[in-house]
Specification:
Elements: H1 7-41, E1 52-57, H2 63-73, H3 79-89, E2 98-103, H4 108-117, E3 123-126, H5 133-142, E4 163-166, H6 172-192, H7 203-216, H8 223-236, H9 243-251, E5 260-261, H10 262-265, H11 289-296, E6 305-308, E7 314-317, H12 320-338, E8 370-371
Antiparallel strand pairs: 1-2, 3-4, 5-8, 6-7
Helix pairs in contact: 2-3, 6-11, 7-8, 7-11, 8-11
């Protein structure tokens, strides 16, 4: 009686079964790999509202949290597939936090590539040189990416005029704090390099005078010479007589939107440098680096006056007679542009010009003249300290 075959008879059947099973597994594996490959490279979900979807990945997020955010945002179809793809490709150790703009129908490969390359969306906000703190707050309040409120307008001159990178969800106050830290650091650096020729004695006074220089000219090349004019006037005890200080006393840093009225020229706001000696109590804007450098390292000149020259720059002069001639030339240019006969231009008349605020004069109340702002830095002759401005002088340049 035979109870079973020999071992040699069983082996071929076992081998055949194993081969069949192996082939089946291989087929399944190949099919699975083909499916995974197609999922990895095939187009992903379409964007819901636009051509792309914004996704923000917080710092410290793990692969599971990242996958969940991507799935909730609608840029991937499967959390598990994302995790598997990230693990198999080694991307799970290289995913970066930040804000990403994922194109519509981006493949899983594209999404993972964005996150490992760190191709984040970058946002910037600029505080222009010479803008006031109130205007800086307006800029931040208009930026919809930022959150929170600014309880108080920062001190004038305390913000560093610069372009800053911001992130979605960052608070407006946090941006203000960064601007103020930058101002302290840069002012400290510039103050340490000041020359012996500067007339300012404190960093605070440097910011005040630099803010006036900043508002007087938009040409970087002129700032040192403008700073020298004001420095010379301070040394001689002359008043600065700067129109932007009149405007700041009225608006506290916002555009005036019209010409200066005669009553405003004669109004003592505490900032009107036609009426006060020395510097105003605070800066009138947030000056830039070039204006601060000009004030802290002014060139040695004999200039005491400057007036617009019709080219976008200014004509500088050492004496009032030279200045009157420059004013006459400017008035002639103004008259020619307005189509008026040149002979009506009086050399002694207070010059009118385009306002530094970019505005034109508006009608004044009955009996009150409107004086369009004189060219930046148009200074009157040296005058002794006084508390009032004689009526005859208000029409001088």
């Amino acid at each position: 009686m035979v109870f079973g075959g020999t071992p040699g008879q069983k082996r071929p059947g076992l081998i055949a079964a194993l081969l069949a099973a192996s082939a089946t597994v291989s087929l399944f594996l190949i099919a699975g790999l083909a499916w995974a490959w197609s999922v990895y490279y095939s187009p992903g979900p379409p964007a819901q509202n636009d051509e792309s979807t914004i996704v923000t990945l917080p710092s410290g997020s793990g692969v599971s949290a990242i996958a969940a955010r991507l799935k909730n945002a609608g840029v991937i179809r499967s959390v598990d597939m994302f995790k598997a793809a990230a693990t198999l490709t080694g991307a799970d150790r290289r995913l970066r936090a930040g804000e990403y703009e994922v194109p519509s129908r981006a493949s899983l490969r594209t999404v993972i590539g964005l996150l490992t390359d760190g191709r984040v969306v970058r946002h910037f906000v600029t505080i222009p040189e010479g803008w006031s703190s109130a205007q800086a707050v307006d800029i931040l309040n208009a930026e919809t990416l930022l959150t929170g409120t600014i309880d108080e307008i920062p001190e004038e001159g305390s913000l560093w005029a610069e372009t800053y990178e911001i992130t979605r969800g960052e608070s407006r106050q946090a941006v203000i704090d960064r601007m103020q830290r930058a101002a302290e650091e840069n002012l400290g650096e510039l103050w340490a390099r000041r020359s012996a020729n500067t007339v300012v004695r404190t960093p605070e006074d440097a910011v005040i005078l630099a803010s006036i220089v900043e508002k007087e000219t938009g040409l970087a090349a002129e700032r040192p010479r403008v700073a020298a004019v004001f420095s010379n006037r301070i040394r001689l005890g002359m008043r600065l007589e700067s129109d932007p200080t009149i405007i700041y006393g009225i608006t506290k840093g916002r555009p005036l939107g019209r010409g200066i009225r005669r009553s405003e020229l004669e109004r003592d706001t505490g900032y009107n440098t036609y009426l006060i000696d020395g510097l105003p109590p605070t800066p009138i804007a947030n000056p830039g680096r070039q204006s601060l450098e000009a004030v802290l390292n002014p060139p040695r000149t004999d200039d005491l006056f400057f007036v617009a020259d019709g080219t976008g720059g200014h004509a500088f002069s050492r004496t009032y007679d030279e200045h009157r001639a420059n004013v006459a030339r400017w008035r002639a240019i103004e008259a020619q542009r307005a189509g008026e006969p040149a002979e009506v231009v009086a050399p002694d008349a207070r010059p009118t010009a385009e306002a530094t605020e970019g505005a034109t004069a508006t009608p004044a109340p009955t009996g009150e003249a409107v004086i369009t702002m004189q060219p930046p830095g148009t200074l009157r002759p040296a005058t002794p300290a006084r508390t009032t401005v004689p009526a005859a002088n208000t029409a001088q340049s």
